[in-house]
Design a protein that fits this description.
The protein has 416 residues and is α/β, with parallel strands linked by helices. The protein has helices at residues 8-30, 38-42, 49-82, 87-98, 109-119, 137-146, 152-160, 167-173, 187-199, 202-212, 246-249, 270-278, 289-297, 300-308, 331-342, 397-415, and strands at residues 103-107, 126-130, 218-221, 228-235, 239-244, 255-262, 281-284, 312-316, 349-353, 380-384. Helix 5 (109-119) packs across helix 16, helix 9 crosses helix 10 and helix 12 packs parallel to helix 14 (300-308).
Amino acid sequence: MIPGIGVKRWLLLLGSGIAILSLGFSFLLKEFYPLPNFFYYLTFQFISRGLRSGLFGLLGVSAVIIALINLNRSLLAPFVETNPETVVNAVYDYRRRGRGPKIVAIGGGHGLSVLLRSLKKHTSNITAIVTVADDGGSSGRLRRELGVLPPGDIRNCIAALADDEALTTQLFQYRFGDVDSLNGHSFGNLFITAMAEVTGSFERAILESGRVLAIRGRVIPSTLRDVTLMADLKAEANGLCRVSGESSITKANGSIERVYLEPDDVPAYPEAIHALLKADMIVAGPGSLYTSVLPNLLVPDVARAVEASSAIKVYVCNVATQCGETDTYTAEDHIKALEAHVGSGIFSTILINNNLDVDFDPPPGVELVSTNLTSTRHYRVVAADLVDQTRPWRHDSDKLARALLNLLQQSKGVKQ
């Protein structure tokens, strides 16, 4: 009887159907009157009609309830054994998430995975738009050797949206050790690559991989074209220099002046545009500013769709700097870099971390991002405690999801 699980309507229809069937059967019996004498005792005609009605009603309802309970136990027993949640709670959560807000998350790498891992608890209407500019590690090798789009960031997001952290999800993230040609490859990357060969398309491979892990939402690339991320860096000794490839940017010595795609006029994946225009909320980040977030927004149609969307648009500023990419950056530096590449009007809200009072033993060269803003310009700046207490240089998944959902709820209140 819990509201919202979509069962009561069908129970009512079932009861109505049984009542109509009983009425039809009674009319049929009437055609055979007079009935044999034993029907007099079988139908308890020796007691009053009111008592008979209550007695048969009680017996009928009891029979239906017992039958439904045992039928459901028989059908759902295998699922109950493997899932500690009760069936009712599982159905209720499924229905609730299905009615959740349409949220589009833009990014790549581990940052986007952190957000998706908690966001899936609140809604199944999630679309993760992921960069395909990765050229390092396992993804880079598969890209160079087999000519496929890099699957690594997509694999991480699929795993983050998986229904649970079951063995299949762990297998998808498994990385081979020192085994000749498999050295460094993850099983998920190889799986997606093989699926692309079997199905004939990369987008079909992503869809089927998501089905294998029963993900809550969907993961799509920002473009299906082969793109290279380029960067102009300012080095103290040599002035400006140009670096080609995402993996080379953070290794080069110099501060990033700008990044761009080559070619720079690639079309967006149509489903990405559709998702952005239908979204209730669009979130860029968290993640590497220049190598995860911006490569998606540098696809012209993606940036235009974000700007045209009526959704609340939030940029999530990183809680810590990143070596070789955003060294010494403050929150304001992140915002300026975003403006320099995609303009000042594309995002209306900036979400920053305000918990800087944490025990911090970071990796070398990493420090918490200062949130002092000299000017908020035309943005709405929202500050909240977003850090992971165990790893303060990263966002806490649950804190971040709650902060974003609160922003969405507030924006709906304003619109109403």
